[in-house]
Amino acid sequence: MADNPRQPKLMTGAQMVVASLEKLGVDVVFGLPGGAIMPTYDPLMDSEGVRHILVRHEQGAGHAAEGYAVATGRVGVCMATSGPGATNLVTALYDAYLDSVPMVAITGQVGASLIGTDGFQEADIRGITMPITKHNFLITRAADIPLALAEAFHIASTGRPGPVLVDIAKNAQQETTEFRWPKQYDLPGYKPTLRPHSRQIKEATTLILEAERPVLYVGGGVAKAGAAGELARLVDITGIPVVTTLMARDVFPDDNPLAMGMPGMHGSVAAVGALQRADLVFAVGARFDDRVTGRLDTFAPMAKVIHADVDPAEIGKNRVADVPIVGDARLTLTRIADALEGKKLPDISVWVEQLQEMRKTYAPGWEEPPAGELSPQYVISRIGALAPDDTVFVTGVGQHQMWASHFLPHRHPRSWLTSGGAGTMGYCVPAAMGAQIGRPEATVWGIDGDGCFQMTNQELVTCALNGIPIKIAIINNNVLGMVRQWQNLFFDKRYSHTDLHSDQYPDFVKLSEALGCVAFRVTQADEIDATIRRANEINDRPVVVEFVVHKDAMVWPMVAAGASNDDIQIARGMAPDWGEQAEDEAVGAAGSGEED
């Protein structure tokens, strides 16, 4: 039979899993074996096309698959066994779901005859993950495996990307039958709208041509669509200022004069001010989530809204759109740019100058720490300044994440990985590992907190054993910094259970060395640059640098949760001066809008 390539081959279901992954072009799977997935691990050992990275915890496998996917644009794949192995993937699936990361998780399930009997390690992982996956499958027959995996990859990577789970019963992995690769598949009800409607494009173009204070509100959808070039072209044509959400910090270079930075709770004054005073917000691939809008009924009060998104469920969910555009971000930006090219555009120079002055006056900064202590913001800015141009930056979640957004250089697409929607502590180390596997030629720096690092640092062993030379900066302030900042501001400095005592345990240098890394500790300002340079030179092992920093450094600017963006503070009790001229023009524009 093997001599006749036109005749279907007999395979076990487990062999079909591996053969399907090879046909789908998968080059790496992050996973950890166990009883219910062991049949699939056996042929995986012989695959010449699929590399397996054995992680130390399934959550690490999930975040590594995310990191690989975001850094490369390809589907990330992770694998786990049933029961607690599968449930350990839940956090990563949830994270990928909220951040629209294309990912396929393959889990082993108990045999079909045991499903529903509370068999050993049986978990209804399909039911558990139903709300946090784009789709999921339960496969009980070997013959269904190739089609399910082909469909899973298609669903994960098309439309609004997201995680898909394929749960395969043990008996399906063990059965032998003919392997038939699907030539086509039909997914009733799943037909993402990619091409924007011409009428909406025309209406959006009309609003842009009428606007005096337009702003582009760019989200992670632009990054996922690989539309940085199309965005740059539209900005070149129109001269419209750009604000980029936390998830889109790498799609428009910060050194462009029209880049206003990140909006929202810890956004820049220029970005927040641009949205609050705009008469037109053109949102592309962005959600109007609460971290951006603040108090929703006061968000961008004078603006008409064009909302373009490949997911129609996002449009109008939180903010009514005057012009809804359902479609792929790349196609939408291209068609808008085509429609505007060569047209006489309104003069928005006064508006642009106001925002640029705001950007200059209220550029994110920091207060110097007490003598002898390190400023975390300065440390992060030096990592950015000394990192090679091709560096991929990955963060944990918390204060260091916000500082990394503000003070790292953001120049190139697919060079910024962070957990936005879920805000998952423990994301940094495994996501950096996945990014380094996907982009072996790039330098990968992870900026992590001492709290986040202690959640998933065991994956450094995985890095050490597999020659994955990520670099991790621990911004060690001894506390859960963002929570402590809120305790400082809103809980009368009652520091309830936020002191990690990371100055006592663990010894991060010894821990990292025990995990197979080169490790350094930096406590003095004059050691910072030399240590970062030394870390940049080490490319045969993972490197960890612990920076012991000031405990009470704050993230500013800040809009308190539930407050209006108009109440943004640049320091405690200090609000920006918006300028009388801007206020007068804003009021005048609001009046004009009502008359219209």
From TrEMBL:
<comment type="similarity">
    <text>Belongs to the TPP enzyme family.</text>
</comment>
<protein>
    <recommendedName>
        <fullName>Acetolactate synthase</fullName>
        <ecNumber>2.2.1.6</ecNumber>
    </recommendedName>
</protein>
<dbReference type="Pfam" id="PF00205">
    <property type="entry name" value="TPP_enzyme_M"/>
</dbReference>
<feature type="domain" description="Thiamine pyrophosphate enzyme N-terminal TPP-binding">
    <location>
        <begin position="11"/>
        <end position="125"/>
    </location>
</feature>
<dbReference type="GO" id="GO:0050660">
    <property type="term" value="F:flavin adenine dinucleotide binding"/>
</dbReference>
<dbReference type="InterPro" id="IPR029061">
    <property type="entry name" value="THDP-binding"/>
</dbReference>
<dbReference type="InterPro" id="IPR029035">
    <property type="entry name" value="DHS-like_NAD/FAD-binding_dom"/>
</dbReference>
<dbReference type="GO" id="GO:0009099">
    <property type="term" value="P:L-valine biosynthetic process"/>
</dbReference>
<comment type="pathway">
    <text>Amino-acid biosynthesis; L-isoleucine biosynthesis; L-isoleucine from 2-oxobutanoate: step 1/4.</text>
</comment>
<dbReference type="InterPro" id="IPR011766">
    <property type="entry name" value="TPP_enzyme_TPP-bd"/>
</dbReference>
<dbReference type="GO" id="GO:0030976">
    <property type="term" value="F:thiamine pyrophosphate binding"/>
</dbReference>
<dbReference type="InterPro" id="IPR039368">
    <property type="entry name" value="AHAS_TPP"/>
</dbReference>
<feature type="domain" description="Thiamine pyrophosphate enzyme TPP-binding">
    <location>
        <begin position="396"/>
        <end position="547"/>
    </location>
</feature>
<keyword id="KW-0808">Transferase</keyword>
<dbReference type="GO" id="GO:0009097">
    <property type="term" value="P:isoleucine biosynthetic process"/>
</dbReference>
<dbReference type="Pfam" id="PF02776">
    <property type="entry name" value="TPP_enzyme_N"/>
</dbReference>
<dbReference type="InterPro" id="IPR012846">
    <property type="entry name" value="Acetolactate_synth_lsu"/>
</dbReference>
<dbReference type="InterPro" id="IPR012000">
    <property type="entry name" value="Thiamin_PyroP_enz_cen_dom"/>
</dbReference>
<keyword id="KW-0100">Branched-chain amino acid biosynthesis</keyword>
<dbReference type="GO" id="GO:0003984">
    <property type="term" value="F:acetolactate synthase activity"/>
</dbReference>
<dbReference type="GO" id="GO:0000287">
    <property type="term" value="F:magnesium ion binding"/>
</dbReference>
<dbReference type="InterPro" id="IPR045229">
    <property type="entry name" value="TPP_enz"/>
</dbReference>
<keyword id="KW-0460">Magnesium</keyword>
<dbReference type="InterPro" id="IPR000399">
    <property type="entry name" value="TPP-bd_CS"/>
</dbReference>
<keyword id="KW-0028">Amino-acid biosynthesis</keyword>
<dbReference type="GO" id="GO:0005948">
    <property type="term" value="C:acetolactate synthase complex"/>
</dbReference>
<dbReference type="InterPro" id="IPR012001">
    <property type="entry name" value="Thiamin_PyroP_enz_TPP-bd_dom"/>
</dbReference>
<keyword id="KW-0786">Thiamine pyrophosphate</keyword>
<feature type="domain" description="Thiamine pyrophosphate enzyme central">
    <location>
        <begin position="201"/>
        <end position="335"/>
    </location>
</feature>
<dbReference type="Pfam" id="PF02775">
    <property type="entry name" value="TPP_enzyme_C"/>
</dbReference>
<keyword id="KW-0479">Metal-binding</keyword>
<comment type="pathway">
    <text>Amino-acid biosynthesis; L-valine biosynthesis; L-valine from pyruvate: step 1/4.</text>
</comment>
